[in-house]
Amino acid sequence: MILILADSTDPWATLVHREAQRTGGDVFWVEPVQLLDKILLDWPVVAGEAVVPGSLAIDGHTIPLDHLTGIFARLPFPLRLDLEGLSDADGQYVTKEATAAWLAFLNAMPCSVVNRPIPGGRPTLLSGSPLLAQLAQDHGFILPASRCTSSQADALQQFMTWGESAYLKPLGSVEPGRFLHSHDGGEQIRRVLEQQAVSLQATPPGQQATVYVAGEEVVATVLRPSEAVPQPMEVRSAHAAQCLRLVRALGLSFAECQIVITHDGGIACLDISSAPNFWCCPQDAQQQIVAHLLKHLSELRSLSHHDSSYGADGRSGARERVRPTCSPER
User: Which of 68, 72, 55 minimizes the C-alpha distance to 26?
Assistant: First the structure.
């Protein structure tokens, strides 16, 4: 049984839902705004159990929690709920309680959760955190120079200093950023800075590429044309494996990596997004991603894993023992 928690307009959720129905899989889809109205959660929190007790009631169907094979969690935190009729104070209270409950639930379930949320939100910039920056470097990645700013003049000056080649991402955005080039970079900087502050990263000369990870595999790579690379450079299997290891170390099972392969064989990581951009993803890559996501969400797991930042779904890697617990251990 697969549970999809996503807006009705979410294109990834739409394709996963459609493919699950086409292949005869059991799947339920609930929009986040309707969580309190559509789902009744009976979840006794009991430590030390190999099987998670309790059930979900959705539209009159009772689903034992141990029947869940995967949850496609495309919902925002804090939750955005339909709380019409409540005062502001009551609405804030219900939102906080519901957010805490669903964060706990999604982190306690032993099944695959794509992507498992973390309290306080997931960092969106590798260079914005010393711990994440060190993690990326430990996995063999180069982190280019970066700058965060809300000043248009400052951003444009930095863009010029870096030879009119940079990577732009709005601060706080979980979606991928964009590569800037000399012909339109200045205009893109002005447009984004009208709305919010940004992060700029220097783009080293080399082959720009997007690597898509779904489940526990690299499922597609897309090369980007670049003035600095007359002839396309191959994304070797070693490069893809590097991306996969870092994605898993970040606790993600669905991600889009923006990388640059330098002329001397190095690899710079500009961004790892937990919300891959559907509209910029080629159609053949979309199909591969959806097939791998569905496979990952359909695989039954009977034991939960030690709660860490390593491994698929934010769980343990090969270095850690699997532990028969139903709630995260600290």
Answer: 68
Q: Which of 102, 117, 76, 70 minimizes the C-alpha distance to 252?
A: 117
The CATH H-level superfamily of 123-144+205-273 is: ATP-grasp fold, B domain (3.30.470.20)
Q: At which residue do the structure tokens 């928690």 appear?
A: 5
Domain formed by 146-203, architecture: 2-Layer Sandwich (3.30)
What is the DSSP annotation of 226-264? Answer: BTTBSSPPP--HHHHHHHHHHHHHTT-SEEEEEEEEETT
pLDDT digits (tens, 9 = 90+) for 303-329: 444 333 444 444 433 333 333 333 333
Report d(CA 190, CA 149) in Å as an integer.
12
Report the Cα 158 to chain-centroid distance in Å: 29
pLDDT digits (tens, 9 = 90+) for 13-66: 999 999 999 999 899 999 999 999 999 999 887 766 656 788 999 988 999 998
DSSP string, 158-179: HHHHTTS-EEEEETT--S--EE
Q: Rounded CA gap, 256 and 271, in Å?
A: 8
CA 14 – CA 34 distance, rounded (Å): 17
Residue with tokens 């700058």: 147
Residue 326's nearest CA partner among 1, 96, 36, 68 is: 68
Contact 198, 190 (CB under 8 A): no
What's the pLDDT at 32?
Answer: 94
**In terms of C-beta density within 10 A (0-12 exposed, 13-18 middle, 19 or more buried), how is residue 194 classed?**
exposed
* Predicted TM-score (pTM) above 0.70: yes
Mean pLDDT of 134-162: 94
pLDDT value for 89: 95
| Domain spans of the chain, in order of start | 1-119+282-330, 123-144+205-273, 146-203
